[in-house]
Each structure stands twice: as structure tokens, then as C-alpha cells.
Specification:
Blueprint (H helix, E strand, L loop, with lengths): L1 E2 L3 E4 L6 H8 L2 H4 L12 H10 L6 E7 L5 E11 L4 E8 L8 H16 L4 E7 L3 H9 L3 E12 L2 E11 H10 L3
Parallel strand pairs: 5-6
Antiparallel strand pairs: 1-2, 2-3, 3-4, 4-5, 6-8, 7-8
Length: 181
Amino acid sequence: MYLGPRIQLRALDPLDLPRILSYVNDYETYSPFTESPPLPKSAAFQARWLEGALRPNLLTFAIALNETGTLLGTCQLRDIQPQRANAFLSIIFLKEAQGKGYGKEALTLLLDLAFQELNLHKVSLQVYETNTAAQALYEKMGFQKDGTFKKHVYRKGRYEAQHLFSLLDREYASKQRQVPS
């Protein structure tokens, strides 16, 4: 478990599945984070997803409140490549947890793990062009845009670009020295 001032990154628990289902089946909440069409997901589907979260090149965490343990969302380091010292990051919050500063705290915990514990050199992520709040947070955390996949995904009746961002270990360390917690 990784503890921040208000939240923790902890192992997923089967008891988290109902809350996870609540956001993966809410198109407005889930659509900024996935290329999948808005198809309902069953509890059995999510249980298989939870089992798949135990792969060696994937670290999946529940993001939960310290005080109550209430699930706020999930985050991952995926496609971890130890020989290249890089990985991809993803994060998603339930609608009621968005816009409350939990994203910055969760990203800090996950990036500390990536760079300080796993000794990764680079963490990358992809974000849709319309998810401007996430882009602003990533840039505030030190991520830089590496490029854009133009008209990459068909969503909500149109093709949408997807931006690729990355953050190097030394850039993160420098940013952490500049910004007090």
C-alpha cells in the first residue's frame, strides 16, 4: 500500500467490483479513458479483468480514501518493460471523485513508485484531445507532449486525436524539487 495525505494506492479487492462496474458502465465517466465502444460490462467480465490485473508486466491499484477506504478509481502502470525501463500509465476516477485534487495525489504516488521503487527511466501515457483537464494535470506534473495520433479513435460520432505524453525520471525528480508537496 502507498499512502498519500488523503488517498492510498492499494491492491484491488473483489469487493471493489461493484464500484468499478459503476464507472465502466457510465459512458460519460468512462469514455474519456477508453477506446472501447459504450457496451455494458458484466460483473463476470470485470471479475476476469481483475484476474488479468495480476500479470507480471502490469501493476493495477485501487485509489481509495485513507479515512474510509472508499474506492475513488483505479490506476495502472502497464506494459512495464524492465529491459527498457519504461511503462505506460493510466488512471480513472469515478465521476464524484473528479475535480477534487485526487488525481495529482494519485499520480505523485504512482510516479514515485515508478521512478524510485521500480527504477523506471520513462513513463508514458495517452490522452484524448478533448480531455483537457487531464492534459493540464499531466503538464503540471512535468509530462511533455511527444506527439499526436491524428484522428486516431472514432468516439461520439467523430474521429478524435490522441496525444502521447511522457515523463523521464530526471524530469520528474527536477519537478519534485521545484514544487513543494
